[in-house]
């Protein structure tokens, strides 16, 4: 087929493409991903038994995770359409990383110097690093499906951003189960888990997000 | 370059608003730039280059709602063109796939090649691989130029069904074009 004929054929079709607004689909994907993640958590692990008494720490942990997801989300959305620079969105991610480092530092400064390392690292085995990616998977798959209908052109970066957003959602869910309330421990290992999701996303992106 | 941006943006916005002539002019202008761009990068394989031109044109057409008017249209086109080429390398698993020159958008719009070569594969034959509904919708609306309303009556479908089928069909077609290559 001659390219000129193709152009003729394409030019006949000027009706706007029948796609629903992306913003609403993103909200639906996030809400659905969160719900499926919660269902997984409850059926596999159950909520932490003292969730009523531990309302405050659970909420703080969930908010930290939500903040991580919400700084990664603008990056993902910006990458979903071709040819747009990231600008402040990357700076926001940098700001979040700085905030996390600050939180850990402040939490460690407050404690007894001899106890510091124990407080930070030896609380328990950081299961969250393995479980958060699992709980993030439903959100990641829903977002990937949606993203394929848009037009990401940097698949590695889009995959990383997608992983980070999903990791944040997964960490929100995990907060309902997570038995450790130490700030230094939580900020450190949740961040590691979310970063791991971003790395997995960067690798999976090249296959998952192709269009 | 600045002129190209201004002119292409005008055509793009008019096309999005429903001006078929502007949309056609945009696709024709972009095709010329793409041909020069891909031929320079796929020396010795002009058919591959023409395949990529067609793929990219379909991508630009079916994903035109992904254009954000707050940013330059040349950057949008360039990002898609570059993506289609990287995808081409990945599919081919050629050596050097990671060493695609990271050149800038301006280069795409400084050269143009007019003569359209025949692409290696025939889009018409690929149409046969589509589900019947999508194939019929594309055949009538895109190729025969029948109005959506008449096509809907003829296929016994609703108008929105015809529109969606044609749109989905084009997207599937793009994927088929990508897969039959290499």
Please name the defining characteristics of this protein.
heterodimer; A: 211 residues; mainly alpha; 8 helices; B: 182 residues; 0% strand
What would your notes on this structure say?
The complex is a heterodimer of chains A (211) and B (182). With 211 residues, chain A is mainly α. Chain A contains eight helices and no strands. The radius of gyration of chain A is 20 Å and the shape is elongated. Chain B is built from eight helices and no strands. The two termini of chain B are 33 Å apart. Chain B is 66% helix and 0% strand. Residues 94-102 of chain B have low confidence and may be disordered. Classes of the chains: A mainly alpha (211), B mainly alpha (182). The interface between A and B is large, with 31 and 60 residues.
Give a quick summary of the entry.
The complex is a heterodimer of chains A (211) and B (182). Chain A is mostly helical and 211 residues long. Helices cover 73% and strands 0% of the residues of chain A.
- Percent helix among the residues of chain B? 55-70%
Please mark out the parts of chain A with pLDDT under 50 across 5 or more consecutive residues, or reply none: none
Rg of chain A, nearest Å: 20 Å
Residues in helices of chain A, as a percent range: over 70%
How far apart are the termini of chain A? Answer: 22 Å
* Class based on secondary structure composition and strand pairing of chain A: mainly alpha
């Amino acid at each position: 087929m001659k390219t000129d004929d193709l152009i003729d054929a394409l030019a006949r079709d000027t009706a706007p493409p029948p796609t629903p607004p992306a913003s609403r689909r993103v909200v639906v994907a996030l809400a659905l991903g969160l719900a499926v993640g919660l269902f997984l958590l409850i059926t596999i692990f159950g909520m932490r038994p003292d969730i009523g008494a531990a309302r405050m720490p659970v909420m703080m942990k969930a908010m930290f995770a939500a903040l991580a997801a919400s700084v990664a989300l603008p990056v993902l959305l910006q990458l979903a359409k071709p040819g747009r620079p990231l600008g402040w969105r990357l700076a926001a991610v940098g700001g979040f990383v700085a905030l996390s480092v600050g939180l850990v530092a402040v939490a460690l400064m407050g404690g007894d110097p001899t106890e510091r390392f124990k407080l930070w690292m030896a609380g328990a085995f950081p299961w969250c690093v393995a479980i958060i990616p699992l709980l993030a998977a439903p959100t990641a798959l829903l977002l990937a499906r949606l993203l394929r209908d848009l037009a990401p052109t940097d698949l590695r970066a889009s995959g990383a951003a997608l992983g980070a957003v999903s990791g944040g959602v997964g960490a929100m869910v995990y907060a309902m189960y997570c038995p450790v309330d130490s700030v230094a421990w939580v900020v450190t290992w949740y961040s590691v888990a979310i970063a791991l999701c971003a790395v997995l996303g960067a690798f999976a992106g090249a296959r998952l997000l192709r269009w | 370059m600045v002129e190209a941006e201004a002119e292409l943006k005008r055509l793009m916005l008019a096309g999005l608003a429903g001006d078929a002539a502007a949309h056609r002019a945009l696709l024709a202008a972009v095709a010329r730039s793409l041909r020069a761009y891909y031929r320079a990068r796929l020396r010795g394989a002009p058919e591959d280059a023409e395949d990529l031109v067609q793929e990219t044109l379909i991508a630009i057409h079916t994903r035109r709602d992904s254009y954000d008017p707050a940013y330059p249209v040349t950057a949008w086109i360039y990002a898609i063109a570059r993506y289609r080429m990287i995808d081409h390398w990945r599919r081919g698993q050629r050596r050097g796939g990671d060493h695609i020159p990271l050149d800038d958008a301006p280069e795409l719009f400084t050269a143009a090649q007019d003569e359209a070569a025949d692409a290696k594969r025939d889009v018409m034959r690929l149409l046969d691989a589509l589900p019947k509904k999508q194939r019929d919708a594309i055949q009538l609306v895109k190729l025969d130029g029948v109005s959506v309303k008449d096509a809907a009556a003829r296929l016994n479908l609703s108008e929105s069904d015809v529109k969606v089928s044609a749109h989905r069909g084009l997207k599937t077609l793009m994927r088929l074009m990508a897969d039959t290559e290499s």
